[in-house]
Fold this sequence. Notes:
Helix content: 25-40%
Shape: globular
InterPro entries: Beta-lactam-related, Beta-lactam/transpept-like, Beta-lactamase/esterase
Low-confidence stretches: 1-21, 236-265
Structural class: alpha+beta
CATH class: Alpha Beta
Distance between the termini: 25 Å
CATH superfamily: DD-peptidase/beta-lactamase superfamily
Order of helices and strands: EHEEEEHHHHHEHHHHHEHHEEEEEH
Pfam families: Beta-lactamase (PF00144)
CATH architecture: 3-Layer(aba) Sandwich
Protein name: CubicO group peptidase, beta-lactamase class C family
CATH topology: Beta-lactamase
Domain Beta-lactamase-related: 37-411
Amino acid sequence: MRVRNRDGRHGMGGTVDMGGMAGGVHGHCDARFARVREVFEKHFADGEEVGASFAVFHRGRVVVDLWGGLADHRAGREWERDTPAFVYSCTKAVTAAAVLLLAEDGVLDLTAPVASVWPEFEARGKAGITVEHLLTHQAGLPVIEDEVPLEEFDDLPAVAARLAGQAPLWTPGAAHGYHALTYGFLLEEVVRRAAGCSVADMVADRIAGPLGLELWLGAPDEVAAHAARLTAGDRANDRVNDRVNDRANDGAGARVDARANAVSADGLLSRALGNPPIHRLKGGANHPLMLRAGWPAAGVVATARGLAGFYRALVEDALLEPSTLVDATGSRVRGHDRVLQVETAFGLGFMLPSAAYPAPPRARRSAFGHLGYGGALGMGDAVHGLGMAYIMNRMSHEVVGNVRAYRLVEAVYDSLP
C-alpha cells in the first residue's frame, strides 16, 4: 500500500580489543537465507566486527534481521535489536528521495537552474548549474574552500552561503566528482528556498514518520544516547578487502583503491572529506553535535531495519511514483570520478553498481542505493524485490567498496531462487 502525505510540509575513536562478541549473534533469518547468517557470524568469529546489524526485506517480508556484538566497546554495551548507528553517506539516498518528492509535488524542477530558487548561487560562473547537477555530483563544488568553524556545524544556511560564493572547479556538467559533504549543504539550501522547510523536516514528515522507520536525519537526544559508538578499524583487514574487491569488481571496473588520494593533503578527496573538519570534535562523528546536526550528505542515524525499510518502500512504490524511481535509478553519469579517482556511477542521488559500489553479478543491472564512509550500505533492487541495509561501528579504512557489506549482499543474491 502506498504511503503518501501531500500535506507534509567523522574522527572515530581508537582501536579496540576484539576479545569476543559479547552475547553473540541475535535475530532471525529465514531458512532460505541461512548463508547470510553464516557470513554475518563469520565476520565476528574472524574479528572483523565490533558490533553490527543486517536486515533484508524480500517481496515485502523481513527475511533477515540480525544483530550482534558491542554497540560501545568502551562501556561493554551490547548491540541490541534497536541499536542505531551513524551511517555517513547512506544519507545521500534519503536526501535524494526527499528532493524527488518535491519534484513530484511540482515544487521543484530538477532541470531548472539552482539560481531560480537560490539567486545568490548564480555568482562566479554557476548560473547554468541545475538541481540535477547537484544530485549527480556534476556541479564542480566538491570542496568548501575556507575551513568551516565549529559554530557553523549546525548552521546549514551559513555553510551553503560559503558555497554560493565559490567558483566551480570544473565546467558544470562536463565531469563528475563525488561531493562527499557539499552534496547535502547544497541540496539543503535548495529545499529550504523551494519548499520553506529543511531536508530533515522532509525526512521526518514525508519519509520516516509515515513509514514508521527507525531513521532520523538529526537524531533526538534519546536516539543519540542509544547510538552505537564508531571505532577505528584494523589495516590488516584492508589487505583482505583488496583481494575481495578484485573479485567483486571482476567485469565491473577497476579495483577500488582511493586511499592514495585520501592521504594526500592536496587531493580532492581529503579536501572534500575534511571540511567541515569533523576531526576537531572530541570523538569525531560520535560527538552529540554530529549526531544531532542532520547534514543531508552525512547525518542519518538509523537501525539496519530502518534503512532497509526505506529501500523496501522505494521498491514497493510506497514512497515515490514508479516512474520517478525508474528515472532516478537510471544511469546519469558513469566513469572516472574526479574526487574518488575510481569509476563511479550515479542516478539522481543514488549510487549504481560500479567499481566504487561493487555488486554481485545478479545485481549489477538492477541494484541501486548508497554506501556510507567506513562500511555502511543501503541497497534496493526492484527487479528482485529487495531492500537491505548493513550498519556497523568498526570503520573500514577503505573509502568505498567495503568487503563485509559485499559478502553479505552476495550471500543474499546467492540465496534467491
